[in-house]
Amino acid sequence: MKDQAQKLRELINRRNRSTKRTCSAKVVAITSGKGGVGKTNVALNLAIEFNASGKKVIILDGDLGLANIEVLLGTMPKYNLSDVIFGRKIITDIITEGPNDVKFISGGSGIGELTRLTEIQIKNFAQNLNLLDKIVDIIIIDTGAGISDTVMTFLSIADEVILVTTPEPTAITDAYALLKVFSDKVKGNDINIKLVVNRVRDEREGHRVYEKIKKVTDKFLNINMENIGSLPDDENLEKSVRRQQAVIVRYPKSDVSKALKNVSEKILDIKGDVNSNKGLKMFIEIVKNKVNLTKK
Fold this sequence. Notes:
By secondary structure, the protein is α/β, with parallel strands linked by helices. It has twelve helices and eight strands.
């Protein structure tokens, strides 16, 4: 009698063969040097805007062990990423649909660092990611804050990296620390970072923060940085969080909602390299290679 894992693998393979879509999903990683700067709010509201533009979008909660997206949406998922990694479900079974057609995958708990998975767990994960790659247009990865191996892996495979910070000195310092570690991890490669400065008094403050970070990265790091917008310090954002609703839905005419719409338009306008070797396939190879190294 076939075990559960084998049955799941056969189901994944059948679904992969039946999917006609050949292009890969665009992977957008939303990250930050420290927590509390509004990264998850940015990810959620961008997903809603991408949906409104006609794109098929899913949010992958990359802050493993925590539940940021589901808390903001007020939606309790039945399954999470650990069910896929440990071979209990396939990835299409664990997609949760929240309000406003937001689809997300909960990070779950008990996973730890992705690079510490066993060979069997990597195989399960790889097959599932291949399926996810074929059914959506954009995958938004809401990474954890900081410089863990898992965060660096997510940033390495993203087609677009969106760094969120605030004007606070500690947030700027931590943002630079993340960029430095990321630059060290991918030496020899050009790195393109899109900056979003949250909770600014006005656009000039956001531009000053951008110039401050860019001046240091230009001097010391191999990073190309682009300012794609600032988000005002708008009380409507806090009100929407308390109501567990996206601000772009609850207060669509607010200043912060208008700014978020502008940011989403800029991301959608970015022309990606059609021959890019990034995306989920690259993620699979990165983690596989790290598993192989641990065996030697």
